[in-house]
Every structure is written in structure tokens, then in C-alpha cells.
Write a structure and sequence with these properties.
Elements lengths: L1 H37 L12 H4 L1 E5 L2 E5 L11 H8 L7 E3 L7 E2 L9 E3 L7 E2 L12 E3 L19 E2 L2 E2 L7 E3 L21 E3 L10 H8 L6 E3 L21 E3 L20 E3 L22 E3 L8 E2 L12 E3 L8 E2 L6 E2 L6 E2 L5 E3 L21 E3 L5 E2 L5 H14 L9 E3 L29 H55 L1
Parallel strand pairs: 2-3, 3-5, 4-6, 5-7, 7-10, 10-11, 11-12, 12-13, 13-14, 14-15, 15-17, 16-18, 17-21, 21-22, 23-24
Antiparallel strand pairs: 1-2, 8-9, 19-20
Bound molecules: 2-acetamido-2-deoxy-beta-D-glucopyranose (NAG) (6 copies).
Amino acid sequence: MKMRSNWLATILLVVLCTSLATADNTTTTTVAPTTAATTPVPKINVMKSDLCKKCVCLSNPDYSQIDCSERKMNLLFSVDEWKILQNGDVTFDVIKFEHNNITNLTGFPSYPVKRLYLGFNHIETIAKSAFANLTQLTKLDLSHNKLKVKQLDPDVFRGVYDVHDYLPLGKMIELDLGYNELHSLDPDVFEHLPNLETLILSGNTFQVVDHNAATAISGLISLKTLDMSFMELAELPDYLLHGPRDLETIILTGNLFDELPDDLHLAPNLRELVLDENPIGNLTGDNVFPTLPYLTYLSMSYMPDLEEIGAGAFSELQNLTTLILASNPKLGRIDVNAFSKNTTNPEILAYPPMKKLHIHNNNLTTLEHKLFQRWDLITELDLRYNYWTCDCSNRWLIEVLMVQINNTTPLWIHDVNCYQPNALRNLPLIQLSTEENRLTCSIEGGSPSGSLFLIGLLVGILLCIPILLGSVAIWRRGCLGLNRNNYGANRSLYNRANFNDELHI
Ligand SMILES: *[C@@H]1O[C@H](CO)[C@@H](O)[C@H](O)[C@H]1NC(C)=O
Ligand SMILES: *[C@@H]1O[C@H](CO)[C@@H](O)[C@H](O)[C@H]1NC(C)=O
Ligand SMILES: *[C@@H]1O[C@H](CO)[C@@H](O)[C@H](O)[C@H]1NC(C)=O
Ligand SMILES: *[C@@H]1O[C@H](CO)[C@@H](O)[C@H](O)[C@H]1NC(C)=O
Ligand SMILES: *[C@@H]1O[C@H](CO)[C@@H](O)[C@H](O)[C@H]1NC(C)=O
Ligand SMILES: *[C@@H]1O[C@H](CO)[C@@H](O)[C@H](O)[C@H]1NC(C)=O
């Protein structure tokens, strides 16, 4: 019985296997014609190829790149080299040709590269449709070349020709044109890049964003990041920020703005703004930030002319969590109402939810306690390299904030030093926060400024004695006067009575 059932089972198994195998055969035979047509050539072992001897190849499951930087190349790969890549067993996502001697960029053959780095060459011309065969390209770096407006033709970025029109380079989301010789842009230059999210134009001396350039940029409706640093700009044209509704990051470092750019309110979804190294003056009067409800990151550092942050300067940035306001050598005053905003309830002020406040290397002497309501939520507070005054006006800074910094970012308690008074110069503030070294700001306590306190007390007493004597004298005279008045009143009453009496008589 047992034997027979085993036999049955094996027969069943054999039948099953053969049916599976035939099923396999049938599927392979149906697929065979197409695979046979496309893979006659065996895959080339790219990592062992000559190409990877010439350049540095790297391949692992997360990242694959071929780096041909600094190879003194005049051209991209030869036809044979491209064949190796195209038929290789590794597909490189990243190709680098930086720091070579490429002057004319001819087209690329088909290859599914995702990021292409051509920076630091001498590229002057680019063929039309040069990148059309790179259909997977997401990032193109053409920075540090010699591109001029005329050579950067819209057709350069054309996609493949399909039936009766050119397709866009639809996957391209980042284009770096920084540090070329551009002074403007063709108004249609990005027409084949409808999904561009990041555009870098830094280091091109535009001086003015003219109508053509503004048209090109404002047409990028998917744009999220715009880098226009070091372009010698003093203002932005009105309509520049109208087009890209989702603009989240604007970088304007190293320009010539002497006040805040006018039209920031036209980028209401702005999340990050960098205005470093501009000669922007005081943030007072009209020169304060407009309402940017989503702005979380603001950097205003290395500003040679910034002396004062006035009331309301940041009041309309009610989502600000990071402020980098550092290395502004003249910045000496931050108004107590710089961040607060009136609410409908006059008793209540709104404050941004600040988490990172970097105000190091300025000319600050004091910090107002009421600048923020919830200092305790600030996890990064950098106060180093300022000119702090170590007296009772900064007692809260010394005894509360310094202890908080010691708990959150202990490295930043060093170099937060006293500048005034002279006797305490270069003393770390944290040393005045301990029980035994506290500033003497009331009768109890003692030590460093104890002598100051004594002088204060003496002056107080000296002033008080005459005042006291004077007021006693006045009181005494006042009392006599009052008595006399009462007496007089009584007397007048008495007189009147007398008068009445007389009248009745
Ligand atoms: C770069 O190419 C130009 C001509 O295309 C040549 O004159 C120059 O010597 C080359 N420079 C280097 C460093 O190879
Ligand atoms: C793109 O590929 C096609 C087919 O391989 C080729 O004929 C064409 O020249 C390539 N385009 C460029 C700009 O090299
Ligand atoms: C702050 O930003 C968050 C999302 O980033 C948003 O939900 C919130 O409404 C913003 N706050 C204000 C005051 O606009
Ligand atoms: C820093 O502030 C002090 C006054 O507190 C002022 O005398 C000095 O000139 C300021 N320094 C600079 C560089 O503006
Ligand atoms: C906020 O309220 C204060 C006092 O009520 C007022 O002096 C100040 O002008 C108000 N600020 C704004 C920007 O309305
Ligand atoms: C700073 O923090 C350290 C470690 O938490 C602690 O030992 C030290 O006493 C603190 N210093 C002051 C002055 O509070």
C-alpha cells in the first residue's frame, strides 16, 4: 500500500514537472525572437575594459559612476568607447568629464545616464539636440565654461524628434549654467525643459535681469530653486517671480542689493532665502520683510552695511525656524519687537517658532529677553564673538541663556565673552552664571561687580540723604500749611457765622 502511494506521488510529480518544463519552453519560445534580435552581442565587462583603465569606474548597487575628470580630453568618448558603455554589463548613472579641455560639445549617443557633469571645461558651443539621446538625464552641469547668450540656443536642449515635433527633455530637473559668460538668456532657452526644478545662474555677470532673461526664467513653471548669486544684481525685475508658483528657494548671495528685493511677496511659497553678502542697509521703516508664511530658513550674513534690525523686521515671517544672522560687523541692535507680531488680541503677540538662531560674530552688546517668548525651544543658539556687556541688564542672558547653551550646544559656550566693563573683558559669560560668581544685581549676593554695587549704593545714599531731608522738610511745611488751611477754613466758617450773625442783627 505504502509503496504504491509513493509511486503515485512520484508519477504525479514527474507529470507536474514536465508540464511546468513545457510551459517554460513555450514561454521562452514565444519570447525568443525578440531577445534574439536585440542581444546578439554578449555583454562587455565594463569594469575590466580599457575605458575603466582610462577613467575611474565605480559600481555598486546604490551608485555607479564613471569619472573622466582631469584627463586632458578634447572630446567626449570615442565611438568605440561609447560602444563599450552601451553594450556593457554596468550602466553608469553618473558620468563626469570635469576639468578637461572640451570646447565644442557635439551630441551624445543613446545612453541612460542620469547625471552628467561637464563643468570646468572650455565649452563655447553646443550642438543642437546634443542631449536628445540622453532620455534619462535629470541633471546637467555645464558650469565653469565659456557659454555666451548667442551659443546657448533653445535648440540645444531639444529632445528627440517624434513624428512632427521635438519632444522635450522631460526628465531634466536640474540645470547648472553657473560661471559662464552669460549676460542674459534667450527668452525661449528653456522651452524644451518644462520640468526644470533647479536653475543655477550664479557667477554670470548679468548686472541687470533684462526682459529676455526674465521671460526665460518666469516661464519655468515647475521651478523650485533659483540660484542667482554673484551676478552683480541690484534689483529683480517685477515679473520675474510671477511664473514659478512653487518657488521654494532663492539664493541671492553676493549681489549689490542695498535693500530687500522688492518682489519677494510674489513668491508666497518661499521656504528658504539666502541674502548673504549684499550691502543691504538697516531693516527699518519700509525695508522689512513682506508676508512669507512658509519661509523657514533665512540667511543674512556678511552684510557690511547692516547696523540695525528694527521693529517688525521679521514679524511677517511667522514660520521662521532658522535664522543665520552672522558676521555682520556693524550689527549692534536688534529691536525687541523685531520678531513679534500683533494679533487680534492686543494682549498677545505672535512669535515665529525659532529653533536655530545664529547671531555670532556681530557687534551685539545685549540681547532682549522679550525678543522671543520661548527661548527654551531654541536648540541652536550661537552668540559667540560679540561684544557682550556684563552687567545686570544682561543678567538673564548670562544666567539663563548661557546655561541653556551649555545644555544644548556646549561647544558654543566658549568665546561668548564680556567686552564691557573693562574689568571683566574677555571673561566668558558662563563663568558669571555660577552661584559663587553671579553679578550682584540686588542686596544679597556678592563678588565681581560687588565694588560697582557698593559705589552704586554710596551714590544712592548720597542722593537719598538730601532727598530724604528735603521731603521731610516739605512734609513738615506741607503739614503746617494744611493745618493752617484747616484753621483758616474753620476761621472763615467762624467768620461767616459772625458775618451772618452780624447780618441778622
Ligand atoms: C586645449 O585645447 C586647445 C585647442 O582646442 C589647445 O590649444 C590647448 O593647448 C589645450 N589645452 C590643454 C591643457 O590641453
Ligand atoms: C542620437 O542617436 C541617433 C541614433 O543613434 C544618432 O543618429 C544621432 O546622431 C544622435 N544624436 C546626436 C546629437 O548625437
Ligand atoms: C507653517 O508651515 C506649515 C507647513 O510648512 C503650515 O502648515 C503652516 O500653516 C505654516 N504656518 C503659518 C503661520 O503659515
Ligand atoms: C560697535 O558698536 C559700538 C557701540 O556699541 C560702536 O562704537 C562701534 O563703532 C561698532 N563697531 C562697528 C564696526 O560698527
Ligand atoms: C502693535 O501694537 C502696538 C501696541 O498696541 C502698536 O504700538 C504697534 O504700532 C502695533 N504694530 C503694528 C505693526 O501694527
Ligand atoms: C556645563 O555643563 C557641564 C556638563 O553638563 C557641567 O558639568 C557644567 O557644570 C556646566 N557648566 C555650567 C557653568 O553650568
